[in-house]
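Worked Example 4.2. Consider the chain below.
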Amino acid sequence: MSDLSAIDHGHEAGFGDYVQLLKPRVMSLVVFTAMVGLIVAPVPVHPFVAFTAILFIALGGGASGALNMWYDADIDRVMRRTRNRPIPAGRIGGGEALGLGIALSGISCIMLGLATNLVAGAFLAFTIFFYVVVYTMWLKRSTPQNIVIGGAAGAFPPMIGWACATGTVSVESLLMFALIFMWTPPHFWSLALFMKDDYSKAGVPMLTVTHGRRATRRHILVYTILLAPFALGLALSPIGGPVVLAAAVLLNLGFIAGAVRILGRDEATAEADGYRAEKAFFRFSLAYLFLHFGALLVEASLRAHGLGGW
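Applying the procedure from the previous section yields the following structure tokens:
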């Protein structure tokens, strides 16, 4: 766990450091999937209310990122991928990050509740709690199931967006949740395959550390296969349609093919070519999710003009 003091490396924090503290790449996924959940919901939302809702959901996602970086500063200092983050690099103090994260958490949840409804505000608060306390403080350092269970935090945003519009949870929002939830393990495990020894050095019990890389490759294939029915179920739901179905079929065939490809590789071959197949699978996993949710947007637009849906 991070202490509350900064490591003084003689660097002053700039605006970009505070942006980095909020994990903008993760935030972009949160914003996009929450926006899709809000737009595809059957209850129309005024554009200003929708913009306000997405803004506060983004702030909530940023708050989670700041609190995660505060707590994980000790392991971030060890890992090559994270050691230049603002706190381990000494540009922002741990106490400052903690204060910012708590402040943004409170503001985002209260304002989202006021702008939309109490269900959405409470849902955002629970998501922040789950990511920071359940995943970051507990699961991440205690079990190789950290990504499997903790992935729920990243799967909640479309449900929050849906709740902003409807004030409820539905089968459609649960299917959007399930798509992200099942996608998260193969996405992160493929990253762990080419991060080499970062997780073991940091003492994080990632599956590659506890069960080995061969077992991780098998798990990736299993989860990509299990993911496909949820994608097809979403395509056949009331917010789906032919566009979503076509995307689901093509993307899941590609995802499974990529998992089969990396399963057949031994570590010597993978290391020799710089883990090209594993990195390609990781990049495809990002496109997989954005294209699925993009297809939902296209279907919603067609439906609004009387053309989409089943």
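Residues 276-304 form the longest helix (29 residues). Residues 170-310 form one domain. Compare this with Example 4.1 before moving on.
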